[in-house]
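> call design_seq(struct)
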């Protein structure tokens, strides 16, 4: 009987121990779940806070372009957005250093860190980043969940939104299909690029786009005919070398080997009447030059020896007969409507944007394409790099032509704080 009582005691202790361990494990799981729930809740709060701040900046920026507004900021860019939430402006105090209670809403606080470095901005530690040439601004807004105010503040979570906005009257063009687009017919011998340091990089697009099979064959034939000499590809010639197929790079539509050149559907850019409709929406006085300057647009009537501007939309109703430039880099879109682009010797021309060459002729009440010619000879040292900053990325169908009537949201996305420099 005593042995049985001892056994019962041992079994009871084991059962109690097991029950205790199960209870502790269950409590541990509950604590972990509570922490996970709290972290998720904090993330939702900080994300919403950052987005609220982005919306606040959008409203403030848009308000500047309403009747009576101050318009595009110029000399005051570094301070114009600074203030308190209650003043419909954006605070810029790091919450870790303590913030004004007027800027905290139920533990939620959004702010702009002026020392953040935005990728692509010409100046480091500049936030917002103002692009005066294209009237665009990129800004990073931080959303925090905080506890307390003043020096006793504790930051519980953080999220960051990056927003890119374009001001009204910021010109946006339909996407060009390639870094170099040749509209119309490119006959045999009308494309030639015998030059050291010659390269065309279509990035995610084609290097060269033509509009028919004959033109495409002419370009490919010319590239293969000059596939010799000392050119190293990607614009790294060694003096006197001719360009190679590897100088024509681009995106996923490119062949696995050879030059990234394709007979493609040019969309609007393959319709002479639609191109002229677009040009006239930009330059209402076309073909006569405008009496007053058009923001971000340079228009020239007649043949020129060089591209006459360094930024923006550059439209030439004529031929470019030399192609040299005074710019270290042309950052924009060049539309040559005379049908001829030619560089002869030492051009050192870099176009960071896109180049469109077409011979557009009157055809009764409308327009048609004539022959197109592109030649780079004798050490032109030329490079064309696709850049969609002035384009309606992803459209390419003619939507959104001309000038925007209000501010445009070009991008709106959350970024990982670990990727912020």
């Amino acid at each position: 009987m005593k042995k049985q009582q001892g056994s019962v005691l041992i079994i009871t202790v084991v059962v109690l121990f097991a029950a205790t361990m199960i209870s502790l494990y269950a409590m541990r799981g509950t604590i972990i779940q509570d922490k996970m729930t709290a972290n998720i809740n904090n993330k939702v709060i900080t994300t919403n806070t950052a987005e609220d701040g982005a919306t606040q900046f959008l409203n403030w920026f848009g308000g500047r372009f309403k009747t009576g507004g101050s318009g595009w900021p110029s000399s005051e860019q570094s301070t114009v957005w600074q203030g308190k939430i209650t003043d419909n402006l954006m605070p810029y105090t790091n919450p870790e250093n303590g913030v004004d209670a007027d800027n905290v809403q139920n533990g939620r606080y959004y702010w702009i860190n002026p020392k953040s470095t935005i990728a692509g901005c010409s100046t480091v530690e500049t936030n917002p980043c103002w692009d005066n040439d294209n009237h665009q601004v990129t800004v990073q807004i931080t959303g925090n969940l905080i506890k307390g105010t003043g020096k006793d503040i504790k930051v519980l979570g953080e999220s960051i939104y990056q927003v890119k906005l374009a001001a009204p009257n910021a010109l946006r063009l339909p996407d060009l299909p390639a870094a170099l687009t040749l509209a119309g017919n490119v006959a045999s011998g009308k494309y030639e690029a015998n030059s050291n340091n010659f390269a065309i990089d279509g990035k995610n697009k084609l290097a060269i786009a033509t509009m028919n099979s004959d033109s495409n064959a002419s370009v490919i034939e010319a590239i293969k005919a000059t596939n010799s000499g000392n050119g190293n590809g990607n614009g790294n010639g060694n003096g006197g070398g001719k360009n190679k197929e590897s100088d024509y790079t681009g995106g996923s539509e490119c062949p696995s080997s050879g030059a990234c050149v394709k007979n493609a559907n040019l969309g609007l850019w393959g319709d002479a009447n639609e191109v002229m409709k677009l040009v006239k929406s930009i330059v209402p006085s076309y073909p006569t030059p405008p009496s007053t300057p058009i923001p971000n647009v340079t228009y020239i009537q007649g043949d020129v020896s060089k591209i006459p501007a360094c930024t923006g939309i550059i439209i030439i109703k004529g031929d470019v007969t030399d192609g040299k430039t005074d710019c270290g880099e042309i950052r924009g879109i060049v539309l040559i409507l005379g049908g001829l682009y030619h560089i002869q010797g030492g051009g050192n021309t870099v176009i960071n944007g896109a180049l469109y060459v077409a011979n557009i002729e009157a055809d009764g009440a409308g327009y048609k394409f004539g022959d197109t010619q592109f030649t780079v000879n004798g050490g032109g040292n030329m490079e064309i790099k696709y850049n969609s900053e002035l384009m309606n990325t992803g459209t390419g169908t003619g939507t959104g032509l001309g000038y925007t009537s209000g501010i445009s949201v070009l991008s709106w996305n959350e970024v990982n704080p670990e990727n912020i420099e």
